[in-house]
Amino acid sequence: MTNGERSLYNRYQQRRKDNGVTNTQTVVNTKPACDFGCGETAEYDGMTKMGPWAYMCQSCFNVNGTGELGLGKGQRLVVKEA
Ligand SMILES: [Zn+2]
């Protein structure tokens, strides 16, 4: 997949979200810090394997997340565009 194709794909995914088709993304003004204290910026707000929800960076999500996104599972954080 080229960068151009990826950009189009991302836009398509965003449109799906805007239409309420999926609940895998949430729009935020700024991404918060990862709740696991690793010093990274969070990329996900989702359920952890332990149960509680947390803001997680990519690597903490890989380790501690359920690996699933969607309503009641988790969302990927997307910074609101000006
Ligand atoms: Zn982290």
Low-confidence stretches: none
Counting helices, strands and paired strands, the structural category is alpha+beta
Summed up, the helix count is 2
Number of strands: 4
Q: What is the N-to-C order of secondary-structure elements (H for helix, E for strand)?
A: HEEEHE
In spatial order, strands of the major sheet run 1-4-2-3
Radius of gyration in whole Å, from Cα? 13 Å
Q: Beta-strand percentage?
A: 15-25%
Task: Describe, in plain words, how this protein is organized in 3D.
It is a single chain. By secondary structure, this protein is α+β, with helices and mostly antiparallel strands. Helix content is 28%, strand content 22%. It contains two helices and four strands, in the order αβββαβ. The chain has a four-stranded mixed beta sheet with strand order 1-4-2-3. The longest helix is centred in the first third of the chain and has 16 residues, at 3-18. The protein is globular. The model has no long low-confidence stretch (mean pLDDT 88). Residues 34, 36, 38, 40, 56-57, 59-60 line the site of zinc ion (ZN).
Strand-helix topology:
Layout: H1 3-18, E1 25-28, E2 44-47, E3 53-56, H2 58-64, E4 74-79
Parallel strand pairs: 1-4
Antiparallel strand pairs: 2-3, 2-4
The chain binds zinc ion.
Zinc ion binds at residues 34, 36, 38, 40, 56-57, 59-60.
Care to give the gist of this entry?
By secondary structure, the protein is α+β, with helices and mostly antiparallel strands. The protein is built from two helices and four strands, in the order αβββαβ.
Comma- or semicolon-separated keywords:
single chain; 82 residues; alpha+beta; four-stranded mixed sheet; 28% helix; 22% strand; binds zinc ion
